[in-house]
Amino acid sequence: MQQLLQRGAAGMQHRTDEVLDASWDDLKSFLACARCKSFRNAAEELQVTSTTLMRRIDRLEERIGCKLFLRDQSGLTLSDEGSAMITDVMEMERHAFNVFRRAANSANDTAGTVRVAVTEGPGNFWILPRLIDFQKTYRKITVDLRCAMEQADVARLESDIAIQLEPPTNPDLIVTKLGRLHIYPFASEAYQEAYGTPSSMAELRNHRIIKQNAPQVDDSAYARILGLKSLEGIVGIKTNSSIGVLYAVERGAGIGFLPTSTIALGVPLIAVDMDGFSHYADLWLTYHKEFRNSDRHKVVIDWLKRIFDPRTYACFRDEFIHPNALVPMMEGARESFGLSGYIAASPS
């Protein structure tokens, strides 16, 4: 009997050692599969092959002795055991990210890299021109600016600071509203001369629009905002790029929906006044609370708040100001950081 107990204890210890030896890569793979609900999408996120990912999940399931996912044609669904495990693994991930954040802040001075993720339009047309002057002042800080419509998850270290269109709800993050981005239809003079411009939503059906497709832009938003059942026959060009939209509008390809500050910053377009049109998106600054103690991050955060301050730049105020009325209000910004010739130097 004693020998049996000893063998049982040894087996139990061996099993425990196997579970504790589970690779962090395997646990990260588990989280990615749970979030993406498919091996293919999770493999793309982790930048591994689907075969490698499935091997990791099989190995993890073998080590802990249970199935973590129910697999069928619709994708992956957490099993009861997987659902019971997910919160603990997410907490492990959160603590792991905190370790790296603290390590990055160990040298608490105004030197080093700060990663900033922002939607493409404000990033390219507002932050980037001002970043040139910023780096002349703060020579030891490198701002790694990522301009993309994919939302960066600050909590998971995809970026240090993010400016996005939806506020995150993670309690570990500090979230501040920077300002409001008002959107308005614009066209080139060449387009107006050739086709005229609509004065109402109903007349828009007779025109061509340039449509942006991107992760932070709801694909159904255009039709909903314009009060149309469908955009069929109206969309001339689709692009995922804010720069592409502006270029196409400058070149007379159609009507585009751009920030109200567009002509105030010197872009040679005209505002298209359609009765009843009104749309805006709030810009949210977000960063992890750990960065409150980092000098270089505080410098960049304060700078971002200054360059989006609605008290200085009327285009970010909550109240709507017509694009034509913004022109005299933003003369200083236009002279210092104007966009004339920024995209299409000689639009036709």
Map the helices and strands:
Layout: H1 2-20, H2 24-36, H3 39-46, H4 50-64, E1 69-72, E2 75-78, H5 80-104, E3 112-118, H6 120-137, E4 141-147, E5 161-164, E6 173-187, H7 189-195, H8 201-204, E7 209-212, H9 221-226, E8 235-239, H10 242-250, E9 255-259, E10 270-271, E11 279-288, H11 295-307, H12 323-329, H13 331-337
Parallel strand pairs: 3-4, 3-5, 7-8, 7-9
Antiparallel strand pairs: 1-2, 5-11, 6-9, 6-10, 6-11
Task: Give me some keywords for this one.
Arc Repressor Mutant, subunit A, D-Maltodextrin-Binding Protein, domain 2, 348 residues, 13 helices, alpha/beta, 2 domains
3D architecture notes:
This protein has 348 residues and is α/β, with parallel strands linked by helices. α2 packs across α4, α2 (24-36) packs across α5 and α3 crosses α4. Helices cover 43% and strands 19% of the residues. The N and C termini lie far apart (93 Å). The chain has helices spanning 2-20, 24-36, 39-46, 50-64, 80-104, 120-137, 189-195, 201-204, 221-226, 242-250, 295-307, 323-329, 331-337; strands at residues 69-72, 75-78, 112-118, 141-147, 161-164, 173-187, 209-212, 235-239, 255-259, 270-271, 279-288.
